[in-house]
Fold these 3 entries.
Entry 1:
Amino acid sequence: MKLHDLKPAPGSRKAKKRKGIGIAANQGRTAGRGQKGQKSRSGGVKKAYFEGGQLPVVRKLPFARGVGFFNPYRIDYTAVNVETLSHRFAAGAEVNPEALVNAGITHNSELYIAILGNGEINVPLKVTAHKVSAAAKEKIEKAGGSVQTIEVIRGHRRTR
């Protein structure tokens, strides 16, 4: 078998429909485009976002309130509840961003951590985080632990 012997399988190639050739072909005269109008004429199909000359929604979006606004000074915190800490750490353990990553609570030690007071804690822990809620601080200290905060660098955004 050589290159000049290659041929497509019988019936795999269909002839192109020749529209507008004659009435007998059933695609003559209007060639399947219907009667008059913009879509019946050559080049008459407009782009998907064209709205008849009106300013398209796509171009209005940047002006919509709040869309595309980026606050470089916003600080994203990863929330961790005291209930999670009591389940994952033994008594007297040090809880800091690295320890939270090792325990599988967060995925990145570079993120800012906020300790929240949801749930109960009954083991004394040494907690070090960027932000601690008043309720969480009260519960940790009541259980015999201590709380220390890490300074947050303003203007440096850490994101997930």
Entry 2:
Amino acid sequence: MATDFKPTAVKPTVSLEDLDKLDIRVGTIERVEDVTRSEKLVRLLVDFGDHKRTILVGMKKERSNPEIEIEGKQALFVVNLPVRKMAGEKSEGMIFDIGFSDGILPRLAIPESAVPNGARAG
């Protein structure tokens, strides 16, 4: 762990109503695939219990083998964002990781033990 890390200032206060607008759910990463038209993106097939989604994540340069490192793991995802087109493909959500915004190697935000896919955070 980096000992020279200095946290940034806390962001402005938001209301509970604003926070409640985010839909963050647990999903199991069933498959990790390369996005050939991108130097950064991998494609995740994520099981949310009642449905599956494709979510594109820019972790190709952050991990030596994303397939081996995260396939089969549960993680947190924001699922109520608009569909976003990246490298000619659609992404149906966003992984909720830790560290990227601070310029440190991102890590998955994961439940401490297995929970049902689709369980909500918050």
Entry 3:
Amino acid sequence: MNLTFTDTQEAFRQEAREWLKANVPDEPLKSFDTEEGFQQHREWEAKLNEGRWGMVTWPEDLGGRGCDLIEWLVFEEEYYRAGAPLRVNQNGIFLLGPTLMEYGTDAQKARFLPKMATGEEIWCQGWSEPNAGSDMAAIRSRADRDGDHYVINGQKTWSTRAVWADWCFGMFRTDPESERHRGLTFILVPLDTPGITVRPIPQLDGLPGFAEIFFDDVRVPVDCRLGGEGDGWSVAMATAGFERGLLLRSPARFQETARRLVELYKCHRASADRDPAVKAAVMQAWMDAEAYCLTTYQTACRMISGGKIGAEASTNKIFWSELDQAMHATALSILGARAELMSHAPDAGDVGNWLDGWLFSQSGPIYAGTNEIQRNIIAERMLGMPR
């Protein structure tokens, strides 16, 4: 892996930096877990698309720039450096988008990807069910074939962004006699279809970041199926690979958090150094963020050369989720009792959004497949250990 950027890559970085400097909002957008903030972020997605920055790796005719993964990582570095808003459509652009590129028909790509890039259609996931969380092979929601439609019945839960999303992608059991990962089909479902009920689930901060989705005789056209009938497990595993291994959590996100953590430590060094473990934790956080960055560049180079994301995606997921927790826990220890203040509290001062970040980091070892499940995958598929 060559760690020196080419002149073309540096020119791309400069172009991205200048556009972001000119277009990133001066004031932070409201949380996309509020209706107003959701709409603000949808408008930001449209603005990104106007500059063809919505998803730079997509083909130009679908709203992208035809960039490779190295250029995407460069863009992400500039994006987080500029303090740009988080992506409300991350389930679509980072997870479903690449899956559509691999498994979708030409008609499906033309139908879904442009509107995904503009933020006109926001996507949520339909993976987890009440008795099938990280164990997706235990899915029971049914999709029964009726001519040129599927009739869907069942329930999905913990669906991020589902409260105001437009579409849901998920797996449904199309063979009622099947068990485990067989007989599952990957289906795209418009959330305004009759028979769908979306019920918000409050997060720790009280905002509806998640939702339950109930399906009661919901009719969805067969052409909303992604991949073959009964092939849903293979399609979903490709999506999970993007989620755990590369696209969902770019290293720039954690490098920016590590940078902020170092600055926080410097501002509070006199009190922080009363506990030598704090300084060591700050240094470890910075090194781990850099290590994750280098590993991701290595993965990107391998994929550009024709490689695939395999079971090692599980190691990435464990690493970045636990790194996120450790960095925010260290920040709270530096701030002491003031860390309990929300950023808008009258006496918050410079506490920033560390508490918000810490609360969110607690979900990291759960979403994208719990870390316990990821350790099982590593043990069985990478180390060859028995079940």
